[in-house]
Amino acid sequence: MAANMPAAQSVDTNVSSEKRSLLRFMWKYKALYFLSLPGIIYFIIFKYVPLFGSIIAFQDYNIFNGIAGSKWVGLEHFRRMFAHYDFLNILKNTLLIGLYDLVLAFPAPIVLALLLNELRLVLYKRVLQTVVYMPHFLSWVIIGGIAVGVLSPSTGVVNQLISALGFDPVYFLGEESWIRTVLIGSGIWRDSGYGTIIYLAALAGINPDLYEAAEVDGANRWRQTISITIPALLPTIMILFLLHIGKFLDFGFERVFVFLNPLNKTNGEILDTYIYTVGLLGQQFSYTTAIGLFKSVVGLMLVVIGNYLSKKTTGESLY
């Protein structure tokens, strides 16, 4: 027993020393911790605390009885979710719109950042950056109003151009075949400019000597982009890609709701709008919580799989 005492004391001493080192480190960078405090509090209150409410997905939740007094039903709501006659169509819409957004909208800020980076006139570059950033600060209600005006079959600029070319006007927001195109296109127009900020910052960190050496070797701008710029951007691209696929099924309620109407609902309704209709308007809280939990599990699986593949192929990962 006596022989073990020095070892135990040594472990306690090491732990105490590590705690003191950690406290000194935190005090040294206390300003950064204070700056991050509002964000940490936000995530705790609005992201982590509500996770405990996911338990009602396994209950027949009654708002008057509360969580403690509601009846447990196990996986009944999940079985109901997959058996619902319209759920598979809504899930298909969500998957297709998410896939289109990943394939078309995700690369758009990268391409735009590369194009902006090639501008040499500083004033023109700053003005253009401001112009492409501005739509991001408009709400989706305003974006929807602009889309209604621009795509109107009678007075819209797009249909006037179509009519001038000798074709019949197209009711873009009244035909289910066009709603996905409108959703993706409006998202690209609104968010691509703002998404370039991170990529432009990454481009600014590339060593200019690399480009000078490439010019000496006779590489043109296209070759420099392929051999220097894209590889330098790859870590940033992979991190943002992994974050993007984590919300693959979370396309956004307001982004779709402002464009949705009975004429395009078949191809336009997604899980978020379905949750609003059934959960908030229909007050089926347990059922829609089960749908939300399903979305979260799928997103987590995609992040884990994508992170593993990214680490194996590129060496870049979230963790």
TrEMBL record:
This is Multiple-sugar transport system permease YteP. CDD domains: TM_PBP2. GO terms for biological process: transmembrane transport. One of its GO terms (cellular component) is plasma membrane. It comes from Paenibacillus solanacearum. Its main location: membrane. The gene is yteP_6. Pfam families: BPD_transp_1 (PF00528). The chain crosses the membrane at residues 31-49, 95-116, 137-158, 178-204, 225-245, 285-309. Belongs to the binding-protein-dependent transport system permease family.
